[in-house]
Amino acid sequence: MRRHLGSLAAGVTAGMDNLGAGVAFAALLFPGALAAGLGMGVGVMLLSAALLSIVIAWRSSHAGTVALVQETGIAVLVASMAGLLAGLEGRPVEDRIATVFAILGASTVVTGALFVLFGRLRLGTLVRFLPYPVVAGFLAGSGWLLIEGALIMVAGEHQLSAMAAALDRPLVLGALAPAVLVAVVMAVSLHRSSHPLTMSTVLLGSGAAFYLVLAAAGIAVEDARLWHWLPDVPAEAAVALPSPLWIAAHADWGTVLQAAPAMAAVAVLNIIGLLLSTSGLEAASGREIDANAELRASGLANLLVGGLGGPAGYTGLGMTLLAAKMGATGRGAGMAAGLILLVGLGFAGVLASAMPTFLAAGLMVFLGGELLYQWAMATRRQLPRAEWLIVLAILAAIAALGFLSGLVLGLAFSVVMFVYNYARLPVVRLVADGRQLRSGVDRSPDAVHALDRQGEQVHVLRLQGYLFFGTMEQVVARVRERIAQPDAPPLRFLILDLAAVSGMDSAATSGFLKIRGMVAHAGAPLVFCALPPGMAEALARSGLTVDADATAVSAADLDHALERCEEELLATENLLSGSDDVTHHLEAILGPHPRLVDLAAAMRRLRLSAGTTLIRSGDPADDVFLVSNGRVRVQVTLADGRVLRLRTMTAGAVVGEVGLCLTGTRTADVVVEGAATVFRLYRSDLERLEQEDGELAVLFHRLLTVTLAEKLVLANRLVQLAHG
C-alpha cells in the first residue's frame, strides 16, 4: 500500500506541475491576436502531457520514469513562428491557429521519428559528440527565448525595441512587474524548499492573490481581460480540441515547410536533452539505463502526440528523481501523472480563461532564468574561459539574431572545435631510426654492428588516426626536422608506417606530395608501409603513384620495409652473403678462442634445400642450430590456415636456443627459404661435452648466453622506445 501511495503522491505532484506549465506554454504559443486558440492550446498541451507521461512510463526501460513536455523546443518554435506568422496577417485567424498547431505537431513528429531512428540504429551515443560548450550555448539561448516569449505575452510586441517602448504603458508594467515577482518568488521558494508541492503552491497562491487584489481594488474581471491581464478567450474556443483533419485543412503548409530548419534544431536539442537526462538518471540511480531503448520509447510517444498537433517531451530528470524520493516505485508515478492531466483536460477552458497573463509569463521567466543560470552562468565554474566564451557567443547570437543564426554559429563552433582539438592529437605515434627499430631478421654480429653504425640513416614515422589538413602538418614538420638536423648523417630512407591510419583527406595527399619532394631532394626514397588501396588510389589521383619509380615505394608492413632498408645498407659493406666456415661466425659472436675449431667440430653440418622444415612446432626441443649460410624463416600457422612469419634468420644466427634452454617443445616451425648450410648440436651431444670436456661445454653455453643477451638488449630497446 505504501508503495502505491508514494506513486500516487508523485503522480499528483507531476500532474499539477504539468497543469500549470501546460497553460503557460499555451499562452506562450497563442498570444495577442492568436488568443482565440488558447483554449484549444491548453487542451492539446494537457492531452499531450498525459499521453507522453503514460506511454513513456509504460515503455521506458527505467520503471520510475516521469515524462514532461519540454520547454526548450517550444521556446525555439515560438521564436521561429513569430516571423513566419507575420506573413499570414491577411489570413483568417483560424488558419493562423491551425498553422501553429501544424508547426508544433510536425516538429514533434520529426523529433519522434529521429528518436526512433537513432534508437533502432543504436546511435544514442552519436549526439554526445557535440561539444559541451555548444550544447550549453543552445540551452542558454533557449532560456533567453523563454524570457523573450514571456515579454511578448506581456507587451504584445515582438521586437526588443518595441518591448522597451511598451514599458512606458502602465498596463504593461502592471503585468510585467508581478510576472518578475512571481519568477523571483518561485526561484527563492524552490531554492529554500524541496517540498514537491512548492511550485504548485506558488502558482495557486499567486493566482489567488491576483483575484483578491482585483476584488479589493474593485476591478471587474472583464476589465482585467480588456487590459490583457487575463487572456481574451472566446467561449467557443475554450472547450474543443482541434482535430488533425481540421489542422490539415486550415494550416498554411508553405509556412510549415519554412519552419523546417527550426524543427530540425528542436529535434537535435531534444535528442541531446533526452540523453543528458538519461545520463543524469544513471548517475543518480546507480544503475545502467539503455539510452537506445529510451529513444525508442520516447519516439513512439512523440509520434503519437505529434499527430495531434502537440509538443515534444521526454523524461523529466528532476521530476523522476523527486518521484523516487517520494517512495514511488514501478510505473505508477508516470501513469498517475497522466491520469491527473486527463482529469484536468475537462477543465481546460476554465484554466485557459482564468490563469492571469502575468502568472504564465512569470513561469516562463522562471524557467528561462533557470536555463540561463544553469548553462550560461554556472558553467563559468566548469569550463575553461575560452570554452565559456563560446557559450556566451552562441547565447548572444540567439538573442540578437534569432535561434537559427545561433544554431549556425554553434555548428560552426562545433566544426572549429573538432578540427582544433583533433589537430592537437598526435598523429605521429612513434619516431625512430634503424638503430632502434630492426626488422624480424636475425643477422650475424658483423651485420648487427654495421646496422648500429648506419641505422641512423633510416628514419621511421609510425602514423595513427585520421590525416587531414589539421594534422598532416605534424608529419611534414617531423620530416623537415630530420632532414635539417645538422649533426645527423644523410637520410637514406624515410619509412611511413600507415598501419594505424584510418583515412585521409585531399590535404593529406598534398602533404605526402610535399614529403616525397623533400626526401627526393635529399636523395632518399619514400617507403609506404601497409598502404590501403583507397589511399593509394587517392595518392595516384594527386600525382603520387607509389611503386612507379624509386622515389616512392611500398612494403607490405613495417617489418618488410625495415628488412629492405637493412639489406641495402648491408650490401654497401658486402655483409649479405654467408660463409660455410662456421668458425668465422663463432668468432664474431664469442671473440677469439683457441677451442672454436673444436666447438665447430662438435656440431654436425647440414646442407638443406629450399622448403625443408628444420624445426616443426610441437616437437621436443632437443637440438640447436647455427646458420652458416642462407636463410631460414620462423613461422606459425594460424587457426584459419594462414601462415604468419615471425622472424627470419640469416648467416650467423642461432636458432632454437630458447627451447633447448627451457627443455620444452617447439612453438613454431622453422623452414629453409633457400639453399642453406646449418650446424646442429643435439642436447645429448651437449650433455656428453659437459661430462667429457667441461671447457668446450662452457664455451657452448657462452654462445647461448650471448645470443639470448643480445636479443634481450634489443627487446629492452624496443620497450624504451615505445614508452619514451
Automatic annotation (TrEMBL):
Gene3D superfamilies registered for this protein in UniProt = Jelly Rolls, STAS domain
Question: What InterPro entries does this protein map onto?
Answer: cNMP-bd_CS, cNMP-bd_dom, cNMP-bd_dom_sf, Membrane-Transporter-like, RmlC-like_jellyroll, SLC26A/SulP_dom, STAS_dom, STAS_dom_sf
SUPFAM superfamilies (alphabetical): cAMP-binding domain-like, SpoIIaa-like
Q: How is the protein disposed in the membrane?
A: Multi-pass membrane protein
**Cellular component per GO?**
membrane
Q: Where are the transmembrane segments?
A: 36-58, 65-85, 97-118, 130-151, 171-190, 202-221, 256-277, 332-352, 388-420
Which keywords annotate this record? Membrane, Transmembrane, Transmembrane helix
Q: What's the chief localization of this chain? A: membrane
Q: Which SMART domains match?
A: cNMP
Q: Which domain of life is it from?
A: Bacteria
The segment(s) forming the Cyclic nucleotide-binding domain are: 596-689
**Localization in the cell:** Membrane
Protein name per Swiss-Prot or TrEMBL: Sulfate permease, SulP family
